[in-house]
């Protein structure tokens, strides 16, 4: 089991300890990280943005695509909760915590939701025929957001780096599977 591999555990611990030291000694920066983690990149904020996209698709009578996006987002949320329960990885524990979180650590729900929401947004832009410069701008925004989510969660001491990496990989894989499934089933028929 990877969670017991000593070099990986040492790397996780080293990264978390270093960032936690900074979080404790830089309260201003820690407050900024909390705002981004708890409001800007909160999973419910990202799900709300996806809900707006789904509503827009449904209003344009793109029923299948709207439902496909909604189901993909719901599967992502369910998958992360099931994996948290199955894996049961403990979160980092600190004598002087700067933040707290609930449920098990792996995978990071924030990181997985950011990868799913960002990936679906880019996929929808591509399907809609967005211009290349808009796709690049969106890709930069999504990349910064997905990376930022991961950094804030480890910086605030509520996740190990591998929890974040796992969330990113699972979220990306889910979006890739959803996009491939949609292309195979519906785009080929047109």
TrEMBL record:
Pfam entry (one): PAP2
Origin superkingdom: Bacteria
Coiled-coil positions: none
Occurrences of domain Phosphatidic acid phosphatase type 2/haloperoxidase (ranges): 65-179
Segments passing through the bilayer: 65-83, 103-125, 134-158, 164-183
Source species of the chain: Streptomyces paromomycinus (Streptomyces rimosus subsp. paromomycinus)
The keyword Membrane is assigned to this record: yes
Keywords: Membrane, Transmembrane, Transmembrane helix
The protein's name: Phosphatase PAP2 family protein
């Amino acid at each position: 089991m990877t969670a017991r591999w000593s070099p990986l555990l040492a790397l996780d611990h080293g990264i978390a300890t270093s960032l936690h030291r900074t979080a404790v000694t830089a309260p201003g920066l820690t407050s900024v990280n909390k705002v981004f983690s708890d409001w800007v990149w909160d999973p419910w904020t990202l799900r709300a943005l996806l809900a707006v996209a789904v509503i827009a698709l449904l209003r344009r009578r793109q029923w299948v695509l709207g439902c496909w996006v909604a189901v993909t987002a719901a599967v992502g949320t369910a998958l992360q909760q099931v994996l948290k329960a199955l894996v049961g990885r403990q979160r980092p524990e600190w004598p002087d915590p700067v933040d707290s979180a609930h449920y098990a650590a792996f995978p990071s729900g924030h990181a997985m939701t950011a990868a799913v929401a960002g990936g679906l947004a880019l996929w929808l832009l591509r399907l809609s025929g967005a211009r290349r410069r808009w796709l690049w701008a969106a890709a930069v925004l999504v990349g910064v957001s997905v990376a930022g989510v991961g950094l804030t969660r480890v910086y605030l001491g509520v996740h190990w780096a591998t929890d974040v990496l796992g969330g990113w990989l699972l979220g990306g894989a889910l979006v890739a599977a959803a996009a491939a499934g949609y292309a195979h089933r519906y785009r080929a028929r047109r």
